[in-house]
Amino acid sequence: MNRPKRQPILWICCTLLVLPFIMTSLSYAQCAMTSGQIDAAVTSCGAGDLDCFVALAKANVSCAANIAWYYMIVYAPENPDDVKNIFIAELPDSSSDEVTASIYAAYQANENQQNAGSRTSANEYPYGQ
After folding, report:
1. pLDDT in tens, the chain (129 residues)
2. What is the pTM of this model?
3. 3-state secondary structure of 2
4. Which backbone phi and psi does 65 adopt, to 5 degrees?
5. Domain limits of the chain?
């Protein structure tokens, strides 16, 4: 019995069309705050006041990862684990993976920024002149 050769292609196409809907339905609520709104909200916190940032994240759980990212980028703490532990202790378990990923990504971005200057001489632009 010969099977039509279109079946694998049809299955792949249908899967690719349906997969985004499945993934978005399983994802967490997306942050409804704009970057300007987050900037305005964090201005109420004192410089480096981690407890204030955690309270903001707790009040806006869907934006917790963005608030944690902001804290990490602006204040660049030496140990991201300390920041992660404080955020995770106060937030629901459902947001822990996203917040953790955000904190470590921001930490890595800060590290990359610091290391970028050490790879070039003071008179050389990284991508030429």
Report:
1. 555 555 555 445 444 444 444 444 334 468 889 989 999 999 999 888 999 999 999 999 999 999 999 999 999 999 999 999 999 999 999 999 999 999 999 999 999 888 876 655 554 555 544
2. 0.69
3. coil
4. -65, -40
5. 35-115
